[in-house]
Fold these 3 entries.
Entry 1:
Amino acid sequence: MSRLIFWTLFIVGYCSHLDFDIVDLSHTIGPTTIRLPFYPPYNFTVIKKYFDENLNIWIEENWFGMAEHTNTHVDAPAHMFRGRPFMNEVPLEKMVGPGVIIDVTEKVAVNFVYGVMVDDLLNWEAQFGKIPDYAVVIMNSGWYKKYPDPELVFGSQNWTNMQTHRFPSWTIDAVEWLLCNRHVLAVGVDTPSVDLRGLGALPVHKRLFRESIIALEGVANLDAIPPCKSTIFIPPLKLYKGSGAPARIFATVPKMKHDGYNQVKNAPSDVNPKFHNARIKTEFYEHK
């Protein structure tokens, strides 16, 4: 018991040096990972899983395969604009910035294909001040709570047909206003795409990438951070010639008493066997 008390006090003391809280903004990669219908399913192969008697240690090693633009991920500018940076070419200083969370949950409750408008940005500034330079601006529609059900996430009972996909996102007018009037590093959504479906030529993607601005898609847990005063970190895989990459996006939030945001929060569990859509392969290699 005394040992338990010691380690509890040690952990509390170790963590208390942080003057900020950490919030996970990423969905779990696994058998329920959301993917576009033309992508191959997530593949997880167990290579080793055994107790090595010679080394006297338990060993696990796995191989996984997935599309770049899957679950919580970053779109590199090269994704849809020739001559713009690939994932490994985007500098780290463009992957961290002050968080600006545009809450449109009430509007999405009325219109599930709502697009963020210029008025939403102006209303945010009326409440919290000018959008800061180098901001990471993300739409919070509450849609992340629908993961990992593909029918709910893509807004269609026939989700394998991309023509039927419907969900909230950004209007090109709002993005154009941002790029012309403010200096932002990234634009994101808690839905599968920064473009509204059914509008044709993906104008938001092309407009962002023309300016070498990254896009964030499938961001989670946005209710756990305030509209402002957070810092958002975007650490994707440094994938050579990658048009995008999965990322463990997270935010730091100053510790403030009685503000509702003073807890360390993880993204909700989204590994539900009901929605398995992956090939899970298991291969055990006998140790010799």
Entry 2:
Amino acid sequence: MADFGFNEHHQNEVINYMRFARSKRALRLKTIDSCFQDLKDSRLMEETYTVDEVSDMLDGLQVLVRGEVEMELINTAHTNVLLLRQLFSQAEKFYLRLQTDISELENRELLEQVAEFEKTDFKANSKVNQESSKPKLAPLNEGGVSELLQKEISRLQEDNDKLKARLRTLESQAMSALDDKSKAERALKDLQKSQGDQQEITNLEGTVAAMQADFEKTLNANVASQKDLQDCLVSAKHDLLRVQEQLSLAEKELEKKFQQTAAYRNMKEILTKKNEQIKDLRKRLQRYESDE
């Protein structure tokens, strides 16, 4: 650490800051890992998926990971500003004006030295630093800034956990709705194979299309509540049962109408005449047999 020109006190301050930064980095990495784990637990429930489903899951994961990384970068920038604020506040008490060289922040050689220090000197000095009690930079408001910052971080983390839980609930409801929609579509295909009434099939297709539109609107609105989804599903099932009942009545009506057609009556008359002719022939045959 001699290359940086630090004394022992400032070296310990750098170690404390690097320990803080490393703990925050590890916490954010755990959060990112949990995003992937949540995706596995909540979405990867089937053996096969379509391209659209995989794309949708990756898009959702991208949004979550991007948000976590962006939040960490913003938090890191704000944390650095707070650190500079402490330094500048102490300097101003002694009427000093500190200057910074932004270009040095991208000095690859210095960055590599810092990385090497973290691997070697940081580990070697960590135990010594824990046993020694060095005074820290005094915040502007006697420790209030650090405490408030920690409370704000805890609050944001809690809100983030609640949002994740809500997202998992909404995804579960959406998957249930899509499953019911698939069942309705399979029922439609079965009816198309077994029924010949095109008009009723068209009505059923319109019903299913309306159901699909309702589902898409509900999903695009992020599924406002579970009760609304359940109401839509119950209504869809009632519509399906009503259409099935209408198809059954239509079949009975068609059979009844067929019996009332002229072709059916003519066929019935022909059969009646044939039966009478057969009876007459049998009577004649019996008379001939009796005469012999």
Entry 3:
Amino acid sequence: MDGAPPPAGLSAYVAVSQLLGLTLLATTGAWLGRYRGGVAWHGHLQFNVHPLCMVLGMVFLQALLVYRVFRQEAKRSTKALHALLHGLALLIALVGIVAVFESHRSKGIPNMYSLHSWCGMAAFVLYLLQWLLGCGFFLLPRASFSLRSRYKPQHVFFGIALFALSITTCLLGITEMLLFNISDSYSRFVPEGVLANTLGVLLVAFGLVVGYVLTRDDWKRPPLAEELALSMDFKTLTEGESPGGSSQ
């Protein structure tokens, strides 16, 4: 019903997810600032732009909870916000990719040889494809009602799968970065290793909480009354069916 409060427990889980997200961003910044010298676009600190941008763009800013949070707003506005946040995430991730390629080029380090880089590039390319298809099917009124209905389960599944892949890639990147920089002392529980491991645990916790919210069917955004009417009109226009379902 329009104006109904959110389901019990949803607000608490959303709040926990955002608290975890902000904490993992702060932890990333603390790690890079305290132990890796900080962040800069030019010079030897350019590489550090990469982990910061990837955690921010490919994990925290993935707008997976938009439809759970904005339950009473117009669907069109929620779609636009969903697409806008994903587009922003892609831009930030692109900055991170450019930073690591530029850093490697200046230092004479080869690119795209590690499992982390393969998974990361796959995640970014598939994320871009997911965004383009989502805009084409749902934001722009071009696809028919039946086509959108058939594609929606794939869009939802791959959205969650890419979120999981992004977190996995971050975990691979953290481990790779630690082994490159503190391999001799990592096994002795040095502070940098403990902090980076904590970041990994926060990433997993963030993913689990967000995943739980997304998989609760009773927490899905219910369609508003006017949206049901518009959906019927759209189906009638695109499929050539009358509101009663008979073909014209």
